[in-house]
Amino acid sequence: QGQLDHVSLSRPLRALRAMISASRVPNEFMCPITTEIMEDPVTLADGRSYEHTAIERWLQSSKRSPMTGQELPHTNMVPNVNLKALIEDWRDSQVVMAAIQEEETCLQELSRGEFAALRAQLQGAFQQGDGLALVVEGIQKIYNDDARRRFAHKRQELEALRQHCPVVLKYHGTTHAAAAAIARGGFALPEADGAGDFVGRGLRVFYTEEQRHAAEERRGDLLMFGQAVYVSSDLEKATRFADGALLLCQCALGNVRQAQAASHNLTQGKLLLDGFDSVQALPGCQERGGCTYEEFALYSPDQILATHIVHFRLVRHGERALVAQQVSNDNRTEAGSRTLREVLSDLALDDSAAGQAIDERRSSACKWLGDAARDDQRRASAAFLSSRQLVSQLTGCARSSNEALQFEALRAWWNFSFGDEANQALAMQQLGARFLASLLDSPNASLRLRAVGLVWNVTQHCAAHRELFAEVGVLRRLGDTLRRACSFAEMAPPWGTLQVVLGALANLAMTCSEALARETAILAAAQQLMEESFAPGAVQQQATRLVCNVISRGRVDAEW
User: Quick one: DSSP state of residue 93?
Assistant: First the structure.
């Protein structure tokens, strides 16, 4: 103990670190009999060292070497003083290492004044439209000298390379245990799966049913910008990836590439070739396959320094605290779990089977395709939409007189065409504007919703598609649907329907703004939803898109 006190007090940490051996136990310190670190090593005639008590027991029943199996010329045991001293030095070094790690990485509670100021800042920054409030229960400051050195070195490196390196504060949501692990060891980049893709396997939670529906519809997607650590500018978004803990992070951005759409297989090497060090996902780009809220992707763990752990809970006004519930990927449908031949067989008509059995089998196949398109869109598209036969059969199911089968087929087309321009063109070619418009008059509300969703998808990029829908009277039909939904005769307004209808109308306004400007009832409903404080943010956003596209005659500033 006296020796350790002398070492730890008389030498700087850097010198101590150089003295310490690797944490793996050297093989020569292990007794061959007990496979444990020796405390009293002795040497036999075979030249090997053993734990004293262990070799004594061995020699009571055998005169052969435990290592070579040969008979020993004698059983004299010689204390191995040098080895014992080495083992003791190694043990002491492990104690010193633990002390250094404890000294260099620690979590310290903030003073009362610091805590109150930072808590007020965070709770004021939390913007949420569902009546939720952020309650900060505790904040710990992170001290990690090694992480700070690596961050400072990376920042200097980026400043020398790019002549600038902005450092910004961002949020990263996680669990209490993961936050503590990051405080000790820093962030780590995600690993690619067997196919070379970077799949989002991190924590994804929901606190309300609205959040659950939004998360589950697109669960299991590829990471938006590939192999990176993701941080958010939006505190509310960070809580969607957090179970009670947030990390406040300093981020050295370097040269930032702005993105409006996803780029799933980005790596640091690919980004550096283009002269960038991080990606900024611009907000409000979900219609283009991008992000709803701003986030940043950083491709070196040393670009991020966690400075504080925030322990929080969410509460709904007037209610108790809400508990985070993790979005499960247990039911994720992989496109590779079924072959094209198997799906074609299930979709095929079979004259020998009863009609109901055929429709149930085909409906099940369409549902599986919809699940695969939702969870594994890129691979599902490549595996199944490349088959003309399957596309034809899926289109036939969408036009079936059996509404259950029709619903599942339309859902599959909806998920295939979500954010994918090529699939949108294929869906429009197969289904056509007139057929989708006719579904808007269906007495089946589920079919109407799927049809509106497809109109929203296929009008996302193509002006010609918008003109075709205008020609077949979709503006009037969508207006009727909007007015019915806005009547608010129900206790719970159909927010999902309103979001999809407004999104479709906002897309159509990019080409048909003059026609929509004459639809005063539609614009009045949209303006009402823009101003309603109780309307979800997603509904208000689509209402705002519609009104702005009409005002600007479809010419939207890219920075709006």
Answer: H
Residues 6+ apart with CB under 8 A from 37: 25, 29, 30, 31, 87, 91
Please give the model's pTM, rounded to 2 decimal places: 0.51
Per-residue buried b or exposed e for 132-148, using 16+ beta carbons within 10 Å of the residue's own CB: bebebeebbbbebebbe
pLDDT tens by residue, 422-441: 999 999 999 999 999 999 98
Rounded (10°) CA dihedral 534, 214, 139, 135: 30
Q: What is the rounded distance in angstroms from the CA atom of residue 235 to the CA atom of residue 94?
A: 40
551-to-288, 521, 546, 556 alpha-carbon distances in Å: 21, 15, 9, 10
207-240-494-497 Cα dihedral, nearest 10 degrees = -160
Nearest to 376 by CA among 463, 239, 264, 288: 264
Q: What is the pLDDT of residue 437?
A: 93
Place of tokens 């409006």: 260
User: What's the half-sphere exposure (Cβ side, CA atoms, 13 Å) at 162?
Assistant: 21
Considering just the CA atoms, what is the radius of gyration of the chain in Å?
32
CB-neighbour burial class of residue 354 (10 A; exposed 0-12, middle 13-18, buried 19+): exposed
User: At 481, is the pLDDT very low, low, confident or very high (cuts 50, 70, 90)?
Assistant: confident
For residues 454 and 457, what is the distance between their CA atoms, to the nearest angstrom?
Answer: 5
H or E segment and range at residue 67? none
Q: Which of 141, 123, 120 is nearest to 133 (CA)?
A: 123
Q: Could you please report the per-residue DSSP string of 143-186?
A: EEHHHHHHHHHHHHHHHHHHS---EEEEEEEEEHHHHHHHHHH-
C-beta separation of 449 from 497 below 8 A = yes
Question: Within a 10 A sphere around the Cβ of 63, how many other Cβ atoms?
Answer: 11
At residue 229, the pLDDT reads 92
Q: pLDDT tens across 141-154, in order? A: 998 888 999 999 99
Secondary structure (DSSP) of 231-269: EES-HHHHHTT-BEEEEEEEEE--SEEEESS--TT--HH
DSSP, collapsed to helix, strand or coil, labels residue 228 as coil
Contacts of residue 192, Cβ cutoff 8 Å, sequence gap at least 6: 198, 227
- CA atoms of 141 and 308, how far apart (whole Å): 4
pLDDT in tens, 233-278: 888 888 888 888 999 999 999 999 998 888 877 888 888 888 999 9
DSSP letter for 28, please. G
